[in-house]
Structures are given as C-alpha cells and as structure tokens.
Amino acid sequence: MALLGDKEYFKGIGEIKFEGKESDNPLAYKFYDPERVVAGKTMRDHFKFAVAYWHTLCGTGGDPFGPGTKVFPWSTASDPDQAARDKADAAFEFITKMGFDYYCFHDFDLVDEADSLAESEKRIERIVAYLKEKQASSGVKLLWGTSNCFSNPRYMNGAASNPNFDVVARAGAQVKIALDATMALEGENYVFWGGREGYMSLLNTNMKLEQDNMGRFLNMAKDYARGQGFQGTFFIEPKPMEPTKHQYDFDAATSINSIREYGLQDDFKLNIEVNHATLAQHTFQHELQVAANAGMLGSIDANRGDYQNGWDTDQFPNNILETTEAMLVFLKSGGLQGGGINFDAKTRRNSTDLEDIFHAHIGGADTFARALLIADAVLEHSAYEGLLQQRYASFDNGKGAQFKAGKLRLVDLYEHASKAGEPAQISGKQELFENILNQYS
Fold this sequence. Notes:
Blueprint: E1 17-18, E2 28-29, E3 37-38, E4 41-42, H1 43-47, E5 49-52, H2 53-56, H3 80-98, E6 102-106, H4 107-110, H5 117-138, E7 141-146, H6 165-184, E8 189-192, E9 198-199, H7 207-227, E10 233-236, E11 246-247, H8 252-261, E12 268-273, H9 274-279, H10 284-293, E13 297-301, H11 320-332, E14 341-343, H12 354-381, H13 384-391, H14 398-404, H15 410-420, H16 430-440
Parallel strand pairs: 1-2, 5-6, 5-14, 6-7, 7-8, 8-10, 10-12, 12-13, 13-14
Antiparallel strand pairs: 3-4, 9-11
Helix pairs in contact: 3-5, 5-6, 6-7, 10-11, 11-12
C-alpha cells in the first residue's frame, strides 16, 4: 500500500477494518465504523480523524531524562530532502492503512529546518510539491497546518510576543511560509499555538505590549492569508503553561476574550486539546462547552494526561466517561466548525514496535466512536434531556421567563422574593445524571 514510494514501512499490516466489539483482532476497529450514521452524520464526517505528523512520524520517545528509544526506518537518510520524502511515504502509508482522511503538521515536521530562512523555504517548497502528489494519489487531505515557532532557541522569549522585533519579524516570515504551504496543499484550516507566547517573570515583562503585539501579528497573518484567497478557519489552541510559566492563551475563556479584543471573531475559533484543558484545571468537556457557548468550537486535539503527572504527557485517549461527557457537548452544539479530531498523542517511551502506533490510533478512534454512540443513546432514549430541562423549568414561565427575557428590574426581584418567602430546596440529582451515563455505556 505504499504510495509513490516502492518501500513498505509497516510490513504485515493491512487496512484496518471495522469488525465490531466481539472481535478479538487487535488490528481492527471495535466501535469506529466510518460509514455508520449517528445523529444524522456518518462517524467519518463527525470526527474527520487526522494523524499528527509531529508525534506519529517524528516522536521517538525522548524525554527530559533521556534520548529517544525508537529509530524509525523512514528517518535514516542523511539528505534532508530524501528524509522528508521517506517520512511522507511512511505517513501516507500509515494514514491510508488506518482508513483516515486527514493529517496535520508543523512546518519543520515535514522537513528539517535549514541554517537559513531562504533554504528552509526551499526545502518546504520541495516537500510540499511531493505531498501534493501524495494527496492526489491517496485522497488524503490536510486538516490544518501550523508553524513551530517555539523549538528553535531564537524563540526562547516567545515569537509574536518576543521583546525583540527582529525575532517577531522572523516568526512572521516563518508563519507566511507555513501559510503558503498550507494553502498550496489546500489545507482546510490553520492553527496558532503559542508555545512560548507568555512569560516566566513579570519583573522583566511588558505584558500589555506583548499581548497587543500578538493581536497585531494574528491580524497580519489573517489578512495575508485572506488576501491570497484562503477560505479556511484559523484556530487558537489554548494552553495554560509549559514550557512558559504563564501562556497568554491560558484556556478557552482567555483565548475567546483575546480573539474578541483584537477583532478576530469573524475568522478565528478554538482548537481544544484534552490535556491542555486538564493542565488549566478544567475538564475537557468544560472547555468544549465554553467554546461552543461562544460559537467557537472549531477543532479538537485528542489525547489525555496522566493523573499523577502535572505536565503534558499527550497519551492516547481511553477514558470513556470523560469522552462521553465531551460527546454530549459535541452533539448538542452541532459538532465542530471547520475542524476535526487530530490525534495529538504519542505512543509511550517503552512502546517501541511500529505495530504499537496502530494499536494507539485504533484505541483512540474506538474511544471517540464508543463515546459518540453512548452520548447519542443518552440524548435519544434516556430521561437526561427532560431532567436537565426540568432543573431550569422555573425560567420557562412567569417571572422567571420575564427575567430570562431581560424584562425585570432589580426591584422586581425584590418584590418577588418578598412575596415568595424562603425558596424550596431542590435536588440537583447529580448521582442520577451520572447513573444515566453508566446505564448507556
């Protein structure tokens, strides 16, 4: 199944098929049936699953305490262009064998950064031409592109928020090149993740200038892409910290405020990551709901953290209850706006077989598919919706309805409370709501 290349990297593994939950085949989907219709759409269309180039093709298992544990067969060429083509061959072989339709990348996931901006641009142009052929021959599409403006030492103090204008300009050049690549590959969206857009200490930080500069930078990027005919959605990906102590896109609410403050609300939505939500001391479902309430639920980076680790472990999703609660928000808000579900997750350091990459993505897809089925059953067949409506029934008529419509004054509340006396104590029925989810799981 290798495409445009005569080498098969994942030997012995064919196309991953749906076999149902009774199957014992570890290389088959148990719940993800791409063509199954749920809530009016196929699973394929609901999720638009995408493979993360940086983890799946580039992540060798290194951590702060040791180098990588995996030597990928597509990473042995010394010539950067050949290495990039080999990586692309492996990527498209994997994506098509998984039966997914999309991938995502940072610019220097595709090819190693060169010593100069000009040579880096040429390298990206060459691999983009190759990727165009890969997309044409496979039908795989680009969900979104982005730029890595955080790894290179030049970005140690940030990119768009850097106190040195020369660094801001270099970041702008890099984003332009990444936008050009995304547009050339007909990418459907573009993401901004401010990996170092924040501060370590307020003592040496002009926060207002840094945030205003970020706003200016995002507007410039948006204007450039729109001027080139880009019709896709721009996403902000919130994260509270790590590597920076405090990042400016701390969580969904903070990011939405920034989007509105800098006049970006007509073009930008959010790309919510599970592990970033929990690092901000929120739940995944909370961040989805905040984004949905603002009409900015754009895309999802699917992963999870470790309850005993206080950092971004980017493990593959497997928490059914958490994901089911998230899928309730997902379905009730009408799904994603522009984006899809990107597996921004990596196999563990000690999972060193190429087959493990398949197991991880199969498990992630099945987790989301099973959660979607449960959430749909809860909404369609249980008492959940009725119970939720009943809890807020006091706003459906009488003074409650007038309050909801903005027709009461504070004195009206005073007069109503004076006549009504002590309010009745009404149970929130939390355990019942939890039991309903368990019942349909």
